[in-house]
Specification:
Its EC number is 5.4.99.2. It is a single chain. The protein is globular, with a radius of gyration of 29 Å. Strands 1-2-3-4-6-7-8-9 form an 8-stranded parallel beta barrel, surrounded by 7 helices. The chain has a 5-stranded parallel beta sheet with strand order 12-11-13-14-15, sandwiched between helices. Strands 5-10 form a two-stranded antiparallel sheet. It is an alpha/beta fold. The relative contact order is 0.10. The protein has 2 domains: 70-349 and 361-449 and 481-505, Methylmalonyl-CoA mutase (TIM Barrel); 523-664, Rossmann fold, CATH 3.40.50. It has helices spanning 20-31, 36-40, 85-97, 128-134, 153-166, 182-189, 196-213, 225-228, 234-254, 259-265, 276-296, 325-339, 358-374, 388-410, 413-420, 422-439, 484-492, 497-503, 523-539, 553-569, 583-593, 607-620, 636-642, 654-664; strands at 75-80, 102-106, 144-148, 176-180, 191-192, 218-223, 266-272, 307-312, 343-345, 511-512, 544-549, 573-576, 597-601, 625-629, 646-648.
């Protein structure tokens, strides 16, 4: 008799319960005695292990409201740094027509006189006519405008506000962000045109004026890009963001603002790397930490939510094979939207080449549109909430960052640790760690240290912004410390940016600290490619290497691919031989190749007999460099005596290995 089917099917009860402990036992059996922790739990730069599996026991999910902004959608804000105001305006109008919500102007404002030998980068908007040209046709009453003017945040704000007055834009409707960040400028440039306390006071005055006259605008920004670009971990990034925010909160309340009003005046901006889970957790942790600060300061619940902007970090961008930057930018946008950023900036893929082009800007904004409007990533408040892994990682970052923040406070707060050089020392240590991993390709860079385009040079396509004039000399002013309102009046009367800065008391730096040194992870490899590309252009060919595959191809195929890829990273021409059965065949193949570099690839078991026989013959056949693929171990001295010049193997220092080759080939001076 046929049994009736049940209304609901469930296979859960047909199998025994499988918990974490049972899974762990099976994994350890499969490791055959290897350490579970060493094999499967790498330690992050932040110092805590990343588990291969997270279960309910690892984390108690937090309420989404504690992490997300609660908004529907995200604002797309694009950045502009073209020196020519007319060209910058064309780019702005093109982007606005393409769906950009707000604009960020990187202004050439090297006014401090503390870095006269530095080349500034940004829009040259020093005069009223420059601003009219820059903002011509831009609906300022409907478009958010952010200004990044470094130490000149007050003069730039005055020039912008004067431009708004000329266009009869009501201040009450203005959505501006003046991004006063004096401690960020001090960290980046190592000096300020006024004493640090005077710059903080100027920021406080700007915030008080903005709160009163332009309630939809913000005066202050906490931007940790300078630390991220120096290699900061997520924990350091969060702690420095928090310490700077607290310093600014104190300054603003000292200028008469309530905690709620002060919090409303501060915006936050962070850069994200390509580890998307960590980036998501960093943004979620930032919200938790800032909420804790505002609540502890007596602020109201509705003002605990931070305005948070995210963008792809410059340290992960590359000049070589820049199209891969599209992927890096997409990962950062993805993490920013899932992590709860209110504003995202999509970086054009050719940004490291200098002036960006129409295609790269279109790809940048459309990437954001696809993620938001087609994938709907920003439609859910805190979509990562409840993930055991991300909840754990968020809490780990928040706890560690809070501890480091407290340490900074004990050392005198953000200003104190900057002026003492403590931050620079901390970042130098982690930067060395990161670069060591980059050099050994433990942290690979696609298109640069892995899977490069060896014969394509970026030199011809490279474009650089026009050099800016040196910062002006400032004469003593009889009307120092003028008000912001007076600065706007001066702008209305035709004063330029430098003249307003002078009236505000700007002059040679009185505060000097060790600047935070930026880094890009790809720079060591790009420097090598620059030298090789220049040499190839001068000589009409690239240095050539012949990979000699000796022995059965199957077992050594991974080693052959490794050797070919590593040499190509330097921009060398590389040929790979057919399978060679003996030393005689290898010597003959090299002699016929026309190469000057011989790369010997074989099985480890063959090397003791093969290397002493083949290395001298390769030298006789004209090899200036004989390279062995594999770690020589105890045989290094003997094989060097036989004629091997260098060794390449997994986790070797790749830039140093390439520079060694370049020196022997005459590409690089000894």
């Amino acid at each position: 008799m046929t049994q009736p089917l049940p209304d609901r099917f469930s296979i859960r009860d047909d199998f025994p319960a499988a918990g974490y402990d049972a899974w762990r036992r099976l994994v350890e059996e499969g490791l055959h005695g290897e350490s579970f922790a060493k094999r499967l739990t790498p330690v992050a730069y932040e110092g805590f292990p990343l588990e291969p599996l997270y279960a309910l026991d690892h984390a108690a999910p937090a309420r989404p409201a504690a992490c997300g902004s609660g908004r529907r959608g995200v604002e797309l804000r694009q950045s502009y740094a073209c020196p020519d105001p007319a060209e910058a305006n064309r780019q702005i109008l093109d982007d606005l027509a393409g769906g950009v919500d707000s604009i960020e102007l990187e202004l050439d404002a090297g006014l401090g006189g503390h870095a006269a030998d530095a080349v500034q980068r940004g829009v040259r908007a020093a005069r009223a006519e420059d601003w009219d040209l820059l903002l011509g046709g831009v609906p300022i009453d409907r478009t958010g405008v952010a200004l990044r003017a470094g130490e000149a945040f007050a003069p730039a704000a005055a020039m912008f506000l004067a431009s708004c007055r000329r266009r009869n834009v009501p201040l009450a409707e203005l959505r501006a962000s003046f991004q006063a960040d004096p401690l960020g400028v001090l960290a980046e440039r190592g000096g300020l045109p006024l004493r640090t306390n005077s710059m903080l006071a100027q920021m406080g005055e700007l915030a008080a004026w903005t709160c009163k006259h332009a309630p939809r605008s913000r005066a202050v920004a906490v931007n940790t890009a300078v630390y991220h670009r120096a290699g900061a971990t997520a924990v350091q990034d969060l702690a420095l963001l928090l310490a700077t925010g607290v310093s600014y909160l104190r300054t603003l309340t000292a200028h008469g603002l309530s905690v709620d009003d002060a919090a409303r005046q501060i915006a936050f901006a962070v850069e994200l790397g390509t580890h998307h889970f960590k980036a998501i957790a960093k943004l979620r942790a930032a919200r938790r930490l800032w909420r804790r600060v505002i609540e502890a300061s007596g602020g109201s619940y509705q003002h605990c939510t931070m305005l948070l902007q995210a963008r792809a970090g410059r340290r992960v961008q590359t000049r070589l094979d820049p199209q891969v930057n599209m992927l890096r930018g997409a990962v950062a946008l993805y993490a920013g939207m899932l992590g709860g950023a209110d504003i995202v900036t999509s970086v054009p893929f050719d940004s490291e080449l200098g002036a960006t082009d129409t295609l790269s800007r279109r790809v940048a904004r459309n990437t954001a549109h696809v993620l938001q409007d087609e994938s709907h990533l920003a439609r859910v408040a805190d979509p990562a909430g409840g993930s055991w892994f991300l909840e754990t990682l968020t809490q780990q970052l928040a706890d560690a960052a809070w501890g480091l923040f407290q340490q900074i406070e004990r050392f005198g707060g953000m200003q104190g640790v900057l002026e003492s050089g403590w931050i620079a020392q901390q970042l130098q240590a982690i930067s060395k760690h990161r670069m060591r991993d980059v050099h050994t390709r433990k942290q690979p860079i696609v298109g640069v240290s892995e899977f490069p385009e060896p014969t394509v040079s970026d030199t011809a396509a490279r474009q650089h912004p026009l050099p800016s004039p040196a910062p002006p000399e400032f004469a003593a002013s009889s009307e120092a410390d003028i008000s912001l309102e007076r600065a706007v009046q001066l702008a209305d009367e035709g004063a330029n940016l430098a003249q307003i800065a002078s009236r505000l008391g700007f002059g040679p730096s009185t505060t000097c600290v060790a600047p935070i040194e930026p880094m890009r992870l790809a720079e060591p490899f790009e420097a090598i490619r620059d030298v090789v590309d220049t040499w190839a252009a001068e000589h009409g060919h690239r240095p050539k290497a012949q990979v000699l595959a000796v022995g059965p191809r199957g077992p050594i195929a991974p080693r052959v691919a490794f050797a070919e890829g590593l040499i190509q990273v330097g921009g060398f021409e590389v040929d790979v031989s057919q399978t060679l059965d003996s030393a005689d065949d290898a010597a003959a193949a090299f002699a016929a190749s026309g190469a000057s570099i011989a790369v010997l690839c074989g099985a480890d078991a063959l090397y003791p007999a093969l290397v002493p026989q083949l290395a001298p013959r390769l030298k006789q056949a004209g090899a200036r460099s004989v390279v062995l693929a594999g770690n020589p171990g105890d045989h290094e001295a003997d094989w060097r005596e036989a004629g091997v010049d260098s060794f390449i193997y997994v986790r070797c220092d790749v830039p140093e290995a390439l520079r060694d080759l370049m020196r022997r080939e005459g590409v690089l001076e000894p």
